[in-house]
Amino acid sequence: MSRHVKCFVFILIFTFLHFGVNGKKKMLIRKFDMCDPHYDYPITLETTFKEQGGHQYLNITAFVNTPLGLNQSMNATFEYSENQDNFMPLFKFSRSDFCDFLNKDLGAFWFELQKQIGVAPRTCPIGNGRYNLKNYELPMFKLNFPLPSGFIRTILNILETKTNKMISCVSVLLEVMSK
């Protein structure tokens, strides 16, 4: 798998996971889908994940039909529920430059991931192509933003800066638990 393939997959996943948990919590992905399965996004993901021996592994195929990070902005919404019912707003944020978000907001966490996949830190944008990642264990322990125990639903939108065209939209349901 090329280093650009691996880099792209990590960009989408870890944009969400940057807001993970500290060392006293465990976080698992329960659902990871495109926001609207009928919309023709320029960047799409097909994901599966499994739990084995207390670890979670992810398989992703990403279809990139426009360079990821090139003249793109992003916004994310996080909601919370104790039991998957009645989600309430937790927080929202946006960034006018998606590459800046990765390189500045994710920072050391993102750079470490890039090193692990053989990509020079701060590489962005990511080129067009089909990218695959198989049986990858997510390093949740490296994340350091505490969230409450319960369920976190998040939606990440990536938009073309000049036209506001939707480039991609991913919805993720996380379960945060005490260890």
TrEMBL record:
Keywords, alphabetical: Signal
Gene: AUGUSTUS-3.0.2_34691
Signal peptide: 1-23
Protein name: MD-2-related lipid-recognition domain-containing protein
Database matches in SMART domains: DM8
UniProt keyword Chloroplast, yes or no: no
Pfam family, one: DUF1091
